Amino acid sequence: MFRLRQKKQQKTAGQSSEQSGNQLTIRELMEKCKASKDFVSFTKSGRHPFTISYYKSMVNPDLVHRDLIPHLTKNASMSLKELAGEIPIENIEHTKDIQKIKESLLIGSVMIQPDAKKADCLLVPAATAEKRQISVPETEFSVIGPKEAFVEAIEVNVNMIRKRLPIPELHVKEVKIGKLSKTRVTVLYIDGIANQENVNTLLQRISDIEYDHILDSTYVLQMISDNQNSPFPQLINTERPDRVAAVLAEGKVAVLVDGSPSALTGPTTLVEFFSAFEDYFLSWHVASVFRMIRLFSVLFSVLSTPLYVAVLTFHYEMIPTDLLGTLIASRSNIPFPPIVEAIILELSIELLREAGARLPSKVGQTIGIVGGIVIGTAAVQAGLTSNVLLIIVALAALASFTTPVYQMSNTIRLIRFPFLIFAQFWGLLGVSICTAFILAHTLRLTSLGRPYMAPLFPLRMTDLKDALFRLPFSRQGLRPMQMRPADPSRMNFQRAIQKNDIEE
């Protein structure tokens, strides 16, 4: 009884202190805000005084002095509700909620108070619209097709998607995450086409994110992936609004993050990372050949150097007689085993890549070209590596650049080293074991709960029309079935293949 009474007393005391604290909350908030140099708060004196407070770094000064202050001076005798109807600015809020006042001030609103000691006020949106101009895509550049890329302003990015999909079924859901950053994250999907289970899964995972600041879409990508320990990206990170519009029409879901110039799309599959969006702007014959070239390039990039190490270390009898003399001559003065010279060249290529990526564009291009030529020539002349391996590593690095999605390109760069280690210990058997590990891992992966290896596993013949190769648009009458779209039909197949030309 004593403990229960004590708890009741503590609860009552807490409530009374909270009530007394609420009376001082607006003053405390103003004191915290005034500690910043960019916070402005002044009182307009007269028969009907009022106080204006805002962060000048977040507010458009022209809007404040042109549209706000003249109407306040003219209509100072009005109540707050009447004043809200006179000011020619949309979305004005009348509130006493301290938390709402705090959040609005920090995103660029102006607070108007008849009495500075009370929390009753108007919140007038006046945020400055500083944003980067729409530019050409950098990581997903295409020769044919649109030349627009996302920017950091989320409203502009949503506008670019809505221009391509001007339908009311395009729904936008917004969530704020990040204890400090309060980052706006929007989820886009087409109602009636997208599977609602995918939408709910994505919204739930984003809402469950617990982190103090979210600065880019890659933060969200890492936190909502099905397997966060996998090197394989499980959502596509793209900077092209046309690609986002296309996958939304397929029944997928997109995520935009305020402050990020790229969007996330999913569910996705492994084969999608090797299809450039430019493929859809070319004839289906050319696009299919280019896709097969990319897939071959990826296999060559991953397996060429490990196969060289495995063959020269364990299986030299597999080398053709005509080629054996060339290899012996190129390695006659090399003091290291094949694995050492392979690692030296692979690390040199990675150093050149990182140096070229971190330096300014013009200097980075010069470092990449000149550095590769100088280091490669010097390494061969110094007897640190053979010229045959130098050619193989250079071609493998060149082949890795054919991957259209940057995240998958990084994954390919990473998994080459486990293959090298396995090839050194067990030869071709080691390469086979490492391949089995990678294959088993990708078969177990999912993207928002959907199979990552679809349509290859589980095999779906209807989805192969736009996987390893691309058939004509007239043959793609159904949306990808692995997405489980609510409306699987894209068009009337019979009408698509008919040619009703006018008879002369």
Automatic annotation (TrEMBL):
Basic residues biased stretches: 1-10
Transmembrane feature ranges: 295-314, 364-382, 388-407, 419-443
Keywords: Membrane, Transmembrane, Transmembrane helix
Cleavable signal peptide: none
Location of region: Disordered: 1-23
Superkingdom, taxonomy of origin: Bacteria
Biased composition (Polar residues): 11-23
Pfam families, A to Z: GerA
Record family assignment: Belongs to the GerABKA family.
Protein name according to UniProt: Spore germination protein
Organism this protein belongs to: Fictibacillus terranigra
